[in-house]
TrEMBL record:
Entry protein name: Cupin 4
Domain JmjC: 107-235
PANTHER family per UniProt: MINA53 MYC INDUCED NUCLEAR ANTIGEN (PTHR13096), RIBOSOMAL OXYGENASE 1 (PTHR13096:SF8)
Annotated organism of origin: Saccharophagus degradans (strain 2-40 / ATCC 43961 / DSM 17024)
Record lineage: Bacteria, Pseudomonadati, Pseudomonadota, Gammaproteobacteria, Cellvibrionales
Keywords noted in UniProt: Iron, Metal-binding
SMART domains reported for this sequence: JmjC (SM00558)
Length: 383
């Protein structure tokens, strides 16, 4: 049975509250032996096997070093990879990346639980990278927070400057590689060590010998996506009869001018929809629990509806779940894999925290929801 991991209460000796106050989205933090005696749940051979599968998102990145490390030539091959590709690779300077491994391995999925001191809807996935000596993906930065857990071997991490979209990048490369790097920290991580890297901070990982690294990333929608996606969601529900109105229009001194009154009317229209907290919550919950490409949309070995009255069950850990309190403190909108359900706050808490559920204690409304979820997302509880 897969061990159930609990959220960190401390990172090393540091309380989580201190980390969130002083480090989260502010500055990096190295935690030596955050997971003592940690052993990688997956081997290099198992990762290579995943890259051969059609429904697994993977990349093989190879580097051809030049006189300057900032002028290397890079090549990216997207999976599924041909089985014989590993026979043609050099001894050094390549890296294998596999996305959404938390959806492929129960043991890897458990690693997400360690970071549930961050809201569920912010958690994205666990990516695993394997590299032989000197392998990596070059100096780069991400727009999201990441915890880098060393799983096997060693990896050298150099941390640099804060970056933006205007930071200089290697031209004509198939991936974003920085051409400037101001080293601020230089660490070698061992199994069980974790490095937290905030958004926008340049970082550069290089394998020291054979290395496996687990990257726990977080969803960070851009303002562009928030405005565009939410406005589309709202617009799809607005009746055509709702139109711009100016029934208190006064004579315009200059017919060519857009007046301040017109702008105020437009602001009022937009604010009417933007201030609808229920609409915002429903968009956020559905959007942030949608599965990424390559993620499974059904669990295996789900419980049969007739079994639910006799045994406790839980939401599959492979499902993405969160909730938002409705106007009533006893009811909630429950979001699972991009779908929304209206149920009790007790059910919302149990589902989104993957806790055992007792069918006999559920309301009739909650039972209807559970009937809908049963053969797709609910599993017999093992705790």
């Amino acid at each position: 049975m897969t061990q159930t991991l609990r959220p960190f209460t401390h990172l090393g000796d540091m309380p989580i509250e201190t980390f969130l106050r002083d480090y989260w989205q502010k500055k990096p933090l190295l935690i030596r032996q955050a997971l003592p005696n940690f052993e990688s749940p997956l081997s290099a051979d198992e990762l290579a096997g995943l890259c051969l599968e059609d429904d697994v998102i993977s990349r093989l990145i190879t580097e051809t070093p030049q006189s300057s490390p900032f002028n290397s030539e890079w090549n990216v091959t997207h999976g599924p990879l041909p089985e014989d590709i590993f026979e043609t690779l050099p001894e050094n300077y390549w890296s294998l990346l596999v996305q959404h491994v938390d959806q492929l391995s129960p043991e890897v999925n458990q690693l997400l639980n360690l970071f549930r001191f961050i809201p569920n809807w912010r958690l994205d996935d666990v990516m695993i990278s394997y590299a032989p000596d000197k392998g990596g993906v070059g100096p780069h930065f991400d727009y999201y927070d990441v915890f880098l857990l060393q799983g096997h071997g060693q990896r050298r991490w150099r941390l640099g400057q804060q970056c933006t979209s205007k930071s200089p990048m290697l031209a004509n490369a198939p991936m974003k590689v920085l051409t400037e790097f101001d080293v601020q920290e230089d660490w070698v991580l061992n199994p069980g060590d974790i490095l937290y890297v905030p958004p926008g901070l340049a970082h550069w990982g290089t394998a020291v010998g054979e290395s496996i690294t687990y990257s726990v990333g977080f969803r960070a929608p851009s303002h562009q996506d928030i405005v565009l996606d939410f406005s589309q969601e709202v617009a799809s529900k607005i009746e055509e009869d709702n139109r711009y109105q100016d029934q208190f229009l006064t004579a315009n001194k200059n017919a060519g001018e857009i007046t301040g009154d017109a702008i105020e009317q437009l602001k009022h229209i937009l604010q009417t929809y933007m201030q609808d907290e229920q609409a915002l919550a429903q968009w956020l919950g559905k959007s942030m629990t949608q599965l990424n490409p390559g993620m499974v949309d059904e669990a295996e070995n789900t419980i049969e509806p007739e079994e639910m009255a006799n045994t406790p069950f839980t939401l599959s850990p492979f499902a993405r779940a969160t909730f938002y309190r409705a106007d009533s403190n006893s009811e909630a909108y429950i979001f699972i894999n991009g779908e929304v359900y209206s149920g009790s706050l007790e059910l919302a808490n149990a589902l989104s925290n993957y806790l055992p559920i007792d069918w006999l204690s559920c309301s009739e409304t909650d039972k209807l929801i559970l009937d809908t979820l049963a053969q797709q997302y609910l599993l017999v509880s093992l705790t």
